Each structure stands twice: as C-alpha cells, then as structure tokens.
Amino acid sequence: MSANHVECFFLVLFLSFANRDTQGLCIEGEKKALLSFKQDLIDPSNKLSSWVAEKDCCEWDGIVCDSITGHVMELHLGSTTQDPLSSLSGKINPSLLGLKHLSYLNLSNSCFVGIQVPSFLGSLVSLRYLELTEAGFSGLIPPQLGNLSNLAHLGIGDNIGLYAKNLSWISGLHSLEYLDMSHVNLSEASDWLSAMNKLTSLSELHLSYCGLKRIYPLSYVNFTSLSVLDISSNNFHSFLPIWVSNLSSLVSLDLSQSYFEGPFPNFSWSTTSLRSLDVSDNNLNSTIPSSLYGLPNLENLNLRMNNFRGVISSAIENLTFIVTLDLAYNALEGKLPAGMRNLCNMEQISLAGNKLVSEAFDSLSGLHF
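That's the LRR domain containing protein sequence above. Prediction below.
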C-alpha cells in the first residue's frame, strides 16, 4: 500500500469517528425501537423524560450503550419499590426486538398489572440478566424464555397470579446462575426438581411460597454449585430430603414452614461452608442430630416450632461461629451445657417454650433472649 493510500485510509477512519462524535453513539434504528417502546408505557414519574429524539439515546436515563459500537446493551428501568403512582405500567412493545445486543433488562417493581410476561422476550437471545420481580405480571410464564441460553440471572418472583404448569423449558437455560420464582404458582409443576437438577451452574435458587407439593429423592445431584437454596413455605408433607446434605457448596438453606415431618436425619453433610440453616415451623420430631454440631461455620441455626426433644448435647460448644440460635417452642429438657458460655460470637438465643430447668439460663446473662 502506497503512502498516499495509507493517508487516505486514516483520513476516512478519522472522519467516520468524527461523524460518530457529532451524531452521538446512538444507532438510529435502536433509538426508534426505544421510542416505540416508550410510547406504550405509562410513566407517571417522568422516568423517561430524557427519552427524546433530539438527544443521543446513549445518554438517556436507564440506557447503557457499548462505548465503541453504540449498541444498546442494558435497560435499567426497575424501581426500588412498587408504587402505582410512580412505577412504569402500560404495555411492553415488541419493538424491543430491535435491540439485538441487549444483555441486561430490568423492569422490576413496575405495575404491568393484568398482562402476561411477553413471549417475545425469549427471542432476545443476547440477554444475560432478566429481572421482572414484583412487576405485576400474571398468567402463564411463556416457555419461550427457555430459549435464552445465555441467561445467567432470572428474577421473576413476587408476581401474584403468575404460574407454570411445568418447568421443562427451564432446562434450556444452561448458563443460569440465579433463579427467583418466589410466589409463582408451581403447584402443577411436578417436574420442578428434575428440571432444577439439570442446571449445573445454578448458584442461588429461591422457590418460597410456590405451592410445591412433592419433593422427590434424587439418585444423583447435578446442581452442586448451589450456595443458596430457599424452598420455604411450601406444602411438602414429607421427610427432609437426603439430597440437600449432598450440596457441597451450600452456604444458606431455608426449609422453614413447609410441612416437613418425621426425624431430622443425622446427615453426613458434604458442605463445610453452611452458615445459615432454617427448618423452623415444621413437624420434625427427633433429638437434635449430632451432625448439626459438626458444621464448623454455622452462624444462624433456627429449629423453632418443631418437636425436637431430649437434652441439648454438650457438642453444641463446637458451633464457635454461631451468632443466632433459635430453639424455642420444642420439647427440649434438662440443663444447658456449660460450654455454651464459651460461644463468644453468640448475640441472640431463643429458648422459650421448652422444658429446660430455670437455672440453665444463669450462665447466659448478657445475651438477647
């Protein structure tokens, strides 16, 4: 290439960037898609007041563009609280499909009352983050969301009236790390556990208040990346599942208020990272299993409102990191182990509603009961 050709090449390159600077980063087709999206929204707090055709859409509130290509990458339109007087409502225009590079969409705490989650969201295949929590949606969750194979975060909980008849579609979310479906009606989704077990990258799973009725044994646990599991406030009416003790990365486990019954098994826990365990308000009726005292990093233990019986083992002094301990409203009896006074990190303990002798409390002065 001659020197003149090189100079011409760099001149054209310079002029193209100079032209981009004068017009702004925004790509015209994506600006039009966003303006069409805005037209179908009701915006009582003027959150989208900066969305005007005369401005670079990459400078609009809630928009994040790629600093080089100008493509719209993120839409931050969620609110901190759901308030009909200030939250977005209306309809979700399929013009969003014009945002081919969109990787992040947050519409949480909106008021899309009476409408379904749009099935076309399943065509936004670049999405890695989709947050629709407490946005007012109802109806059937579209199985097309299972096409979002790049999705790492899906928040769809706290939408009263939202339901799924099965969760077979969720196995397509190979990259999913976070899933919140709390308060979604899954009472007919008998495949919920087998579907979740296919998500090998899943780190957090929130399924509280889902109307779940069955919790089956698992011959093999695939979702061993789980660090947070919350299946509280369901209707299992079964024994505690053994497979929870095989979750080797588990940090927080909430099984409260789910009608678990029978003895608490003396699990061989695969995790040493568990910091929070809540099995309160069930019908567990055994002694406190010794394996619980072998969880070295446990900080919060809630066994409240069951039917645990017998004495509290002296092995409880092994819980050296315990901060809150709730054993209230069981059938525990006898004296507290003397070693409990050495649990120097403990800030709060609840023992009411048991058959413990009164002098048992003398050594725990200074704690909040």
